[in-house]
Amino acid sequence: MSKRVAAFHVRAGLVLIMAIAFVGAGPFARSGGESRTPDAKGRRQTAQGALTQRATPLFWKGRVGPEDAPRGGEPAECAAAPCDRFRLKIDLPFNTFLDPNRPGGVQVALRWFGNPAGHTLPPGIPGCCGEFDTLHLWIYKDGALVAASPGIIAVSQSAFIPEPENGWYDVWIAYDPEYNVAPAVEYEALAEVEYLPRIHPVSRLLPDLEFRSTERITFDTPSFPIFEPDPPPGSSCFLSEMEEDGARTCLRFDQIIANVGRGPVEIAYQVPAGTPSDPAAIFPVAQRIRESDGAFVDRPGGTVEYHAVHGHYHYSSFANALLWTSDARGRRLGIEPVAAAHKVSFCMADIRIDAWGKKGDGPRKYYAPDCLFPHTSDGTTDEYRQGINNGWADVYDWYLPDQYIEVSGVPSGYYRLEFCADPFDEIAEENEDNNCVVNHIRLRGMEGPKKKVDVLGVIERTRAGRGGSAWHKRWDHRDSAGRGRGRGHVHAKTRSR
């Protein structure tokens, strides 16, 4: 794990300019695989494609592996790591970026998926997931770096080239030998025109939080030794969950929170430098709201608390979870939840692009290590920032500590697992009524040792005033000082993913 711990410390039509295959329903410049045969030196031929119109993205696919090892002529970022190269020609109409009130540019983005099979996990790496792979994105023009999106703990990268000149660009997709587990990583990529919000009239660029469908609900044994040792074999609960919460039967789940607003959800807070002397201390948070002219305003946005086990600050009351009894059709039964998650605090970050190939997402901006390292410090006070950029989603995997509801004594049957983001309305948003999602599940074998959960799908996206987020506001696990029980993450890349 030492290398991974150390690693923290460190977007109309398509015009093909060569014979490149078309794949799928949209325009694809095929990169990788059989479409690129090796040259005499064993290096695969470089694929290329052109972005020629504003409305339609250019898509391509690729793979980075041992055959892409450096052979000379690569940029510095690829001098010691395998890199796949794509030649991007930007050939947009002359008036694409002429409106000074509507700034824009070209977004280049990647996404990839974990591959848990076909390789051996190194010592100390949890075997539950195998998705410890990452790619970095570097964009050059005429030998000069013009945009980049590096960084671990993600399954997407995205870089923005403001109002680029037409011409050829070299897109380098770098494998990370210090972090990756799989010998090769396949990816999808795109280039597209993105516009920022109009500058005038000046408007607030608010975030808009939405929960996505849960991808994994399970009684499986979790594993994430970055934070603590593995649980006993067959246990669904971490030792810390047992000791601190008395947990014995943990219904584990991931939580995926997307920002579909025009602006980022961003918080900033100041704390004493170093480890706080009072581990129970809480500190006020300012939500930073960006404006279309580049200015920003700060407003109160809740609190942060220090978590000693994880060694960093968590934003309190960002999301919660309730378990309700239901009938077979998912209709809620009873007058109150049967169980609730203790966790309400999180560490926000850009983990994956929420709506691939659709316009409206910004570049990757907020990284999980932002929870570990201050943005600025004068030696006495540290200032931290974290958030989720517009068009991105944050993912909290089921195998992380405190991603659970304790269900000892809960009988077999149908249930609603309800999640709400910002349940206490501490974040200003475009829409305050779309923060919740309801997952319909069936619990089986609860009276015996072989407990099972059937995930029946999302049955409802609740709104305040319909019994959804209103109940989440009432079901408050914070103490009298405003602290919430919870952990957050510094997690591995996700898929279930």
Overview of the structural elements:
This protein has 2 domains: about 190 residues, Sandwich (Jelly Rolls); about 270 residues, no CATH class. A hairpin with a 4-residue loop joins strand 19 and strand 20. It has about 500 residues and is mainly β. The strands form 6 sheets. Strands 12, 17, 18, 19, 20, 24 and 25 form a 7-stranded antiparallel beta sheet that branches. A 6-stranded mixed beta sheet has the order 1-3-5-10-7-8, with no helix packed on it. It has a 5-stranded mixed beta sheet with strand order 2-4-11-6-9, with no helix packed on it. It is built from 3 helices and 30 strands.
The biggest sheet, with number of strands, parallel, antiparallel or mixed sense and barrel status, is:
7 strands, antiparallel
> How many structural domains in the coordinates?
2
Radius of gyration: 23 Å
Distance from N terminus to C terminus (CA atoms, Å) equals 22 Å
Average pLDDT rating = 82
Question: Tally the helices: what do you get?
Answer: 3
Morphology call: globular
What share of the residues lie within helices? under 10%
Low-pLDDT parts are 1-28, 30-35, 115-119, 125-130, 464-469, 475-497
Output the structural class.
Answer: mainly beta
The total of beta strands comes to 30
